[in-house]
Design goal:
Blueprint (H helix, E strand, L loop, with lengths): L6 E5 L8 H20 L12 H7 L4 H11 L6 H22 L5 H12 L3 E5 L5 H8 L7 E3 L1 H6 L9 H9 L7 E5 L2 H9 L4 E4 L8 E3 L11 E2 L9 E6 L2 E6 L7
């Protein structure tokens, strides 16, 4: 396999690890408890939809941003202290599930990462989860990544969450690669938007049992910069992906940045 890209950046939940369901379940428990308490005060009870509302308001965002996005959608106003407490409880709920259920990974994604590393491609990981390093360590795959940015790092570096490209740009810088020579793999719409806005060479979007996003994003300045559906090839490369329950299954021939 001949690879011309210098680096590849992966999102974690839903691309590398099977932890999306753990996050969604933690959010559901948190929000449903809040909504039940508010129903006792006369508001109608409508439980959190861990598929549609998770994807629309929470997926891929830092905890506080995801929390506020959902609250705005439900027209709920809370004080700063209560928001902070809810965000902390979500972290606790996720940690409990992580401890009880463990971490599973997508073997096809790990195969791709190992193949890219064998070709000299630097590998970065970006996740809004504050438990990012803990999850990688629990799965025994931390050594596959040359650089990792998790939710704690994003806060310490004051980096905006997706769809802002700041985290991806920082990751590319950490592995010594320019955005134009870097691949981005994402399963969240906000992540694909971040890759596009950052001017990355190729953004591959989509994930198992998830919304299909863009399959690729063009460099800035190109009129043909529209996105293509997951599973199709991008002009100028022989890169393709197969999507299904097994995660990110890729076939890679010669990968080259677009002219």
């Amino acid at each position: 396999m001949r690879v011309i890209f210098r680096a590849a950046i992966f999102d974690m939940d839903g691309d590398v690890t099977r932890t999306t369901e753990l996050h969604a379940a933690a959010w559901k428990e948190l929000f449903d408890d809040l909504l039940r308490r508010r129903a006792r005060d006369g508001e109608p009870y409508r439980p959190f939809d861990e598929r549609t509302e998770y994807l629309a308001y929470v997926d891929g965002k830092p905890r506080r941003e995801g929390l506020r996005s959902f609250l705005r959608a439900r027209q709920i106003t809370l004080g700063e202290e209560e928001e902070y407490a809810l965000a902390g409880r979500k972290d606790t709920l996720f940690e409990r599930r992580l401890r009880e259920q463990g971490v599973q990974t997508f073997s096809s994604t790990l195969d791709l990462i190992r193949a890219l590393r064998a070709c000299g491609v630097k590998i970065g990981l970006v996740t809004s989860s504050r438990r990012g390093r803990e999850v990688l360590a629990a799965a025994g795959i931390a050594a596959l990544f040359d650089a990792c940015l998790d939710g704690i790092d994003l806060g310490e570096l004051a980096l905006a969450g997706k769809p802002d490209p700041a985290a991806f740009l920082q990751s590319a810088q950490s592995v010594g690669a320019a955005p134009s020579g870097t691949l981005v793999f994402e399963d969240a719409v906000v992540g694909v938007k971040a890759g596009r806005r950052g001017g990355f060479g190729l953004v591959v979007g989509g994930g198992p049992r998830r919304q299909r996003c863009c399959a690729c994003a063009r460099r800035r300045g190109s009129r043909g910069a529209g996105s293509r559906r997951a599973g199709r090839r991008s002009p100028g490369s022989s890169f393709s992906r197969a999507q299904g329950r097994e995660g990110l299954a890729y076939r890679a021939g010669r990968l080259r940045p677009r002219p």
